[in-house]
TrEMBL record:
It comes from Palleronia sediminis. SUPFAM superfamilies: Glyceraldehyde-3-phosphate dehydrogenase-like, C-terminal domain, NAD(P)-binding Rossmann-fold domains. Residues 170-296 form the GFO/IDH/MocA-like oxidoreductase domain. It comes from the Bacteria. This is Gfo/Idh/MocA family oxidoreductase. The lineage of its organism: Bacteria, Pseudomonadati, Pseudomonadota, Alphaproteobacteria, Rhodobacterales. Coiled coil: none annotated. GO terms for molecular function: nucleotide binding; oxidoreductase activity.
Length: 397
């Protein structure tokens, strides 16, 4: 799956199944089916397969996914995934999946260094692409993927699932509606402890910059900051490797990193990212201060949002814990009961709904490849600022 492998022939938009009008292949009970091909059958490949199997029932989507083909590193592993997840067919050749006429839309859940070649081949055929983050293994890769996507006119979307929780969607609404006034400050983190133990063996996660904390964890919180606060204009950061060697080999990427930033709206910000934060399992968390109130959220308690309003007697003011329920975005489709909660897999199902809706309507739905590239620009500027020891403007990247 290397970027140097041969590309598929370019087919004009008028020859593809996803030209204007989006004519799909078969219909059942008035609902249009769409053949889904997923590249990668591991952690995220399974999550997307489950999401595509469930999304029609959860959201009553007009397009109903058909698990057409799964691709993995070998035909044997692909066949195991096919049997486990319910795909019609399997292959060990990603080009065969992308070019298959029964595969109408592509989900990329493979290592970052394969994203560009797969996406470019799919866009050459006019097929919609959903790609897991980060968008590419480098800033050049993601820029090329944006160009390919926009040149093709095909639907494109990046997998930033955490910002889609009902609580974080509600936080975005509160900020947009001015409920906490003018935002003045943002603090975000994405902290986990899966490599906190220095005796944890070296693996693919400990080599290659794209697999380090700045390439792996920081994109989620940077995307969250952009969604909640708007564009970032300047950054200064630092990063380091705390455990330089592990059983089985040297560590060639970073364990944790931090940054200060300035948002376009004038607000100050800071973010911290770590895979060695002992005790933190899913520390995707943020705090936001405004002139009329404040917000707090922690993914480890993903069904609660804390809201402070600067109103009423001082003696009775305080943060209010809001439990998500049917009154909050995308909650009711999963559960009728307030406070019962949604989970990780539900975030992926919401992504699947958005991807299908974008294909159905032909209209882009956030976050697109360009939004994913913006995250990568912020990361590139942060790394450059760390090397230079000075502030960097995002516009230079």
């Amino acid at each position: 799956m290397a970027a140097g492998e041969s590309r598929l022939r370019v087919v004009g938009a008028q020859d593809t199944a996803f030209a204007t009008g989006c004519k799909l292949k078969c219909k059942d009970a008035g609902m249009t089916q769409i053949g889904i091909g997923i590249l990668g059958g591991g952690y995220m490949g399974k999550a997307h397969a489950v999401a595509m199997s469930a999304v029609g029932a959860v959201f009553d989507t007009a397009l109903r996914p058909r698990l057409e083909m799964v691709c993995a590193a070998s035909p044997e592993s692909a066949e195991r995934y096919r049997a486990a997840y319910g795909f019609a067919r399997s292959t060990g050749d990603w080009q065969a999946l992308v070019s298959d006429p029964l595969v109408d839309a592509i989900v990329i859940a493979t290592p970052q260094d394969t994203h560009r070649a797969i996406a470019e081949a799919a866009f050459a055929l006019g097929k919609p692409v959903f790609c897991e983050k980060p968008l590419g293994a480098s800033l050049d890769d993601s820029a090329a993927m944006v160009a390919a996507a926009e040149d093709s006119g095909a639907v494109n979307m990046v997998g930033f699932n955490y910002i889609r929780t009902p609580a974080s969607q509600f936080a975005r609404q509160l900020i947009a509606d001015g409920e906490i006034g003018e935002v003045t400050w943002f603090r975000g983190e994405h902290t986990e402890d899966f490599l906190a133990d220095p005796q944890t063996p070296a693996s693919w996660r400990t080599s290659g910059m794209a697999n380090g904390t700045m390439g792996d964890l920081s994109p989620h919180m940077i995307n969250g900051a952009l969604a909640l606060m708007g564009p970032i204009t300047r950054v200064i950061g630092s990063y380091e490797t705390v455990h330089a060697s592990r059983p089985g080999g040297a560590v060639t990427n970073d364990d944790h990193g931090q940054m200060m930033c300035r948002f376009e709206n004038g607000a100050m910000g800071q973010m911290y990212f770590s895979r060695i934060s002992t005790g933190r399992k899913m520390g995707y968390a943020y705090e936001i201060s405004g002139t009329k109130g404040a917000l707090r959220f922690d993914q480890e308690d993903q069904n609660a949002l804390w809201l402070y309003r600067s109103e009423g007697p001082e003696a009775t003011r305080g943060f209010t814990r809001i439990l998500t329920g049917p009154a909050h975005p995308d909650y009711a489709a999963f559960c009728q009961g307030p406070g019962h909660g949604t989970g990780y897999q539900d975030q992926i199902i919401i992504e699947a709904r958005d991807f299908l809706r974008a294909i159905e309507t032909g209209k882009a739905i956030w976050p697109t490849f360009r939004d994913g590239h913006e995250v990568n620009r912020v990361i590139a500027a942060t790394l450059a600022s760390a090397d230079a020891g000075s502030w960097k403007d995002i516009s230079d990247f």
